[in-house]
Amino acid sequence: MSRRGWLLFAAMSVIWGIPYLLIKVAVGGVPVPVLVLARVSIGAALLVPIAVRRRQLGSLRPHWRWLAAFAGVEIILPWFLLSAAETRLSSSLSGLLIASVPILVALLARLTGGSERLSAARWAGLLVGLGGVALLVGPGVAGGSTGSVAEVLLVAVCYATGPLIASRRLGGLPSLGMTAACLAFASVVYAPAAALDWPAAMPSAQVLGALAGLAVVCTALAFLLFFRLIAEAGPSRASVITYINPAVAVALGVSILGEQLTPAMVVAFALILAGSVLATRPGRRGERAAALPALSPRRGVCGADRLAQVIDLKAARQDASRYRAALARRGAAEDFDALLAADATWREHTERAEGLRALQKKLSRGKPDAGQLAELRRLAAELAEATEEQAHAARERDQLLGRIPNLPDPAAADGMDEQDAQLVRGWGEPPRFSFEPRDALDLGSPRGWIDMARGARLSGSRFAYRIGDVALAEMALYRYVIDKLAGAGFLVVLPPVLVGERAMYGTGFLPTEASNLYHLEKDDLYLTGTSEVALAGIHADERLEENQLPARYAALTTNFRREAGAAGKDTRGMFRVHQFDKVEMYVYCLPEQSAQMHEQLLSYEEEIARDLGLPHRVMNIAVGDLGAPAAKKYDIEAWFPTQRRYREITSCSNTTDYQARRLNIRFRRGGRLEFAHTLNGTGATARALLAVMENFQDEGGTVAVPGVLRRFGAPATLGRAR
Fold first, then answer.
1. What residues pair up with 527 in beta bridges, in sequence order?
2. Residues 612-630 pLDDT 10s
3. Which of 362, 390, 519, 640 has its CA 20 to 30 A from that of 603?
4. Distances in Å between the alpha carbon of 517 and those of 99, 129, 343?
5. Mean pLDDT over residues 588-613, rounded?
């Protein structure tokens, strides 16, 4: 954890230890609903105006359900229960019961889909800590207040749920705005109950002072720091403050209130402390972050909330000439110029709307006279017009922004089409046959073949049956590649192939590749054309730790592409089909690692091609032929004797921070959040098997299957005339 993280940790440990004492003092003078209302409403009154001035509340609207859930489990329910329980339990005992929160965070994270694997030491920590809680709730410690103990333990569950919601669902949102919104929501919820139980007499000065302390220090300031601590350290480490809080509560309860500290409480505290340290200690290098996908409302492809997640628009404004020169290599200079113009128009309308809003606010102070009322009506109409113009300008800007491709790598080949790719290196010699080679369609046998005719009869053109030995050989190919990648440290995944619009947009397939996608309109879902989409979505909206990178994933999926624009190309056989299977590699890494990772992915693909014995070459693809997300791309092209040319069988791309920005994937380093870099590469498709069949055939039509595939169930040979 960074120095800033430790400072936040220390501050929160003390600040949230104080409420146990202040609640003990304040609750004697006012009913619990009034106490909680005072705490949240004063905090809201302090923070909401600041959040409004900083325009932090508008960005929270898409997340209001999760903000309400966070407020419910972190403020509304626990504060009511804890305040009531404090009247029947010592502040020391209630504080010690809350110390079970780190244990509950670890358990809840695991039960709700977190992928972090607990070591033996962490499991031991859970058991030791739970033993401490069991000692606390025993009759010798709890003093018979079973109901109050249960209430405080329910509070602990709530407090354990809150950091998980903040980390998984609210990460990256402004902490001031979130705090203000949560306190305002809690104020609305508590107001009716407080009104029914309002005290008849003015509370004492001591009680008012305790309420002020709870509201300002232990509420407004505390939640600002808490959101930042979660973003800085993650939910597990942030929750460890709850075993330091009881130490403060015990010290205050014993030294100020004269409460008794029993030996059993000391032992229980020691067990909870030791267990919490073990259960929430930092994970080993390479452990994966929790992979629970973030939920968000479905929005338009060019929704304004995605603006900052496409390219760094602020940097583009400041260094427009560099951006324009880089994008000109891809033929996107005109789109970039149009984007800057649209952005300038949007900023102009925004400034006008803000100026009108400020003038309207100024004239609204006090009691306006007739002339001022007329001016206010005129301003309201003008502001409505300015706001509509601002929204229209934002839509135009975001539509252009969605079309801007990634900045090309300086090392990517120049040129605009397939013929401009640069040869990097080659391997192997094309075979020389004394006969006319056959393609894969003609290399079947009764034991196995590729059947395009029946595929077309079933589904239309560009669909294939792979039958018998051919099917076994293709399955062996995928199993061999998966085994190889797993041995290289890739985590194997079987992901969904139906995804929402945001996943397609986040990976760059929307809006530019919409014509190639199969869209299920009734369900508003898309069939993926590559498992790159699902693997990129694993960590959408998540905050990874620096020591978790690089994170490598490999997936096997069936994929679907319309192949729009390919009419008349590769119409024979299954080289270009609408449905195909593929093993995909996907890597998350630090920005400075992505160039090296790109070369590493390429080396895996080359090794697979060599293991199969395929003559091939590596091509550096021209910038004009790159997909929108890629900064640089390599293709491996294998020799196809019947076509007398090299054809692509795999590719790998470095997408730098393009997809991470669109999917909001960041990592913590040095107290700051940065966008990760992502890369993808093909492990294998059936094209590799097609190349094997063509290159290793004999005159009689028998294909010798490579030995690496036989180990995974492929037959020794394919073919022979039927």
1. 498, 518
2. 999 999 999 999 999 999 9
3. 640
4. 51, 52, 30
5. 96
pTM: 0.59
Take residue 358 and report the two structure tokens written for it. 């400020």
Co-location of 478 and 387 in the same domain: no
Measured distance CA(329)–CA(310) in Å, rounded: 19
List the one residue out of 214, 642, 293, 688 whose CA is nearest residue 500: 293
**143: helix, coil or strand?**
coil
Q: What is the DSSP string of 354-414?
A: HHHHHHHHHHTSS---HHHHHHHHHHHHHHHHHHHHHHHHHHHHHHHHHH--PPPPTTSBP
**Nearby residues of 228 by Cβ (< 8 Å), 6 or more positions away:** 8, 175
Side chain identity at residue 175, one-letter code: S
720 found inside a domain: no
Q: What is the pLDDT of residues 643-684, one digit of tens each?
A: 999 999 999 999 999 999 999 999 999 889 999 999 999 999
CA distances from 583 to 482, 504, 580, 650 (A): 7, 19, 10, 10
Angle 123-669-303 from CA coordinates, rounded to 5°? 100
Element (H, E) at 109: helix 101-111
Considering the domain architecture, whether residues 155 and 225 belong to the same structural domain is answered as yes
CATH code (residue 394): 1.10.287
The DSSP call for residue 61 is G
- Which of 403, 432, 458 is at the close of a domain? 403
Treating both helix axes as pointing N-terminal to C-terminal, what angle do 222-233 and 3-15 enclose, rounded to 10 degrees?
140
**Strands of the sheet with 666-669, listed across from one edge:** 543-545, 666-669, 672-675
Question: Do both 358 and 275 map to the same domain?
Answer: no
Structure confidence by residue, pLDDT tens digits, 49-63: 888 876 667 657 767
Judge whether 554 and 492 are in contact, CB under 8 Å.
yes
Host domain of residue 541? 418-714
494 plus 603 within the same structural domain: yes
CA distance 125 to 103: 8
Give the number of other CB atoms < 10 A from CB of residue 62: 14
Q: Which residues are catalytic?
A: 561, 576, 648, 651, 687
Q: Is residue 300 part of a domain?
A: no
Same-domain check for residues 351 and 484: no
